[in-house]
TrEMBL record:
<dbReference type="InterPro" id="IPR012259">
    <property type="entry name" value="DHFR"/>
</dbReference>
<dbReference type="InterPro" id="IPR024072">
    <property type="entry name" value="DHFR-like_dom_sf"/>
</dbReference>
<dbReference type="InterPro" id="IPR001796">
    <property type="entry name" value="DHFR_dom"/>
</dbReference>
<dbReference type="Pfam" id="PF00186">
    <property type="entry name" value="DHFR_1"/>
</dbReference>
<comment type="similarity">
    <text>Belongs to the dihydrofolate reductase family.</text>
</comment>
<comment type="pathway">
    <text>Cofactor biosynthesis; tetrahydrofolate biosynthesis; 5,6,7,8-tetrahydrofolate from 7,8-dihydrofolate: step 1/1.</text>
</comment>
<feature type="domain" description="DHFR">
    <location>
        <begin position="2"/>
        <end position="161"/>
    </location>
</feature>
<protein>
    <recommendedName>
        <fullName>Dihydrofolate reductase</fullName>
        <ecNumber>1.5.1.3</ecNumber>
    </recommendedName>
</protein>
<keyword id="KW-0554">One-carbon metabolism</keyword>
<comment type="function">
    <text>Key enzyme in folate metabolism. Catalyzes an essential reaction for de novo glycine and purine synthesis, and for DNA precursor synthesis.</text>
</comment>
<keyword id="KW-0560">Oxidoreductase</keyword>
<keyword id="KW-0521">NADP</keyword>
C-alpha cells in the first residue's frame, strides 16, 4: 500500500488559516478529486469540518483526540497508526489530506507526496512540513500560470521517497 500525502502549499509551506484554504484553485480541486476518488482518504477532524463533511466516492477516515466524536459516513479513529490499520491492505494507494498536524505525523510514513506548490507566500496558522530533499526526490513537475480562474501561478509536484519502489 502506497501512502501519499496530498496538499496545496505556498512557497513558505502555508496551508491554511482559520480552518480555510488561503486561495481558490479550481484545477487543483479537480486534480485532487481525480487522484483521490475511489480511495481511502485520511484526515484530521478540523479538515473534515472545514470541508462541511465527508467527500463522496471515497472512504473517509478521521483522526481525532475526542473519544466520543462521531460523524456520519466516516470511520473515526484516534491515531494515525489506527487510521492506517483501518485501510484495506489490498488497497493500492491511500491519501492523507491534512491538516498540518496529520501531515507532520505522516511524512515519515509516506511513500509519495502530491504537492501543489502555490507560487506565493501566505499568512497561515497551518503549515505543510518541510520536504527533506535528502529523503525525497522530485519526480514530476507541471507548471500552471495564473489565468481567469486562477489568481496565482502553481506547479503540481510529485515527490517520491528515494530508494523506494512506490
Amino acid at each position: 500500500m502506497i501512502i501519499t500525502l496530498i496538499a496545496a502549499a505556498a512557497e513558505n509551506n502555508a496551508l491554511g488559516k482559520d480552518n480555510n484554504l488561503v486561495w481558490h484553485l479550481p484545477n487543483d480541486f479537480k486534480r485532487f478529486k481525480k487522484l483521490t476518488t475511489g480511495h481511502t482518504i485520511i484526515m484530521g477532524r478540523k479538515t473534515l469540518e472545514s470541508m462541511n463533511g465527508p467527500l463522496p466516492n471515497r472512504t473517509n477516515v478521521v483522526i481525532t483526540r475526542q473519544k466520543d466524536y462521531t460523524y456520519e459516513s466516516c470511520t473515526i479513529v484516534h491515531s494515525l497508526d489506527e487510521a492506517l490499520a483501518k485501510c484495506n491492505q489490498e488497497e493500492e494507494e491511500v491519501f492523507i489530506i491534512g491538516g498540518g498536524e496529520i501531515y507532520k505525523q505522516a511524512i515519515d510514513k509516506a511513500d509519495k507526496i502530491e504537492l501543489t506548490r502555490v507560487h506565493t507566500t501566505a499568512e497561515a496558522d497551518t503549515y505543510f512540513p518541510e520536504i527533506d530533499t535528502k529523503k525525497w526526490q522530485l519526480t514530476n513537475e507541471e507548471y500552471h500560470p495564473k489565468d481567469e480562474k486562477h489568481k496565482l501561478d502553481f506547479t503540481y509536484q510529485t515527490w517520491k521517497l528515494k530508494n523506494s519502489n512506490g
